[in-house]
Amino acid sequence: MGEDLARRRIDADRAEFMRYGVKCPFDGTLVGPRFVTREHLDVPPDPPYAATVRCPSDKELFEVIFTG
Ligand SMILES: [Zn+2]
């Protein structure tokens, strides 16, 4: 359970995410802003700090934590 949760949280550079350069941790599909289901605006430093993404290929949900 804990491992599954960890797998569902990945760190990514915001600019890389914006240009679809971030891979789904489950199947490696490249994801970006179009696949965001929810942005997390409530955590510093700069909103949005993180986003919930649904992979278009395997439909897995995961959190992308923006590191820069
Ligand atoms: Zn995937």
Explain this structure to me?
This protein is of the alpha+beta class and 68 residues long. The chain has one domain (2-66). The chain is built from 2 helices and 6 strands. The protein has helices spanning 2-7, 14-18, and strands at residues 9-12, 22-23, 30-31, 36-40, 50-54, 61-66. Strands 1-6-5-4 form a 4-stranded mixed beta sheet. A two-stranded antiparallel ribbon has the order 2-3. The protein is globular. The termini are far apart. The mean pLDDT is 86. The structure holds zinc ion (ZN). The site of zinc ion has 8 residues, from loops.
Q: How many structural domains in the coordinates?
A: 1
**How many beta strands in the DSSP annotation?**
6
Uncertain runs are: none
How far the N terminus sits from the C terminus, by CA atoms, comes to 28 Å
Strand order of the biggest β-sheet = 1-6-5-4
- Rg result: 11 Å
Number of helix segments?
2
Shape: globular
Derived from helix and strand composition plus strand pairing, the structural class reads alpha+beta
Ligand kinds: zinc ion
Following the backbone from N to C, one meets helices and strands in this order, namely HEHEEEEE
Mean pLDDT: 86
Oligomeric assembly: single chain
Q: State the helicity in percent bands.
A: 10-25%
Strand content: 35-45%
Please describe the biggest sheet, giving its number of strands, its sense, and whether it closes into a barrel.
Answer: 4 strands, mixed
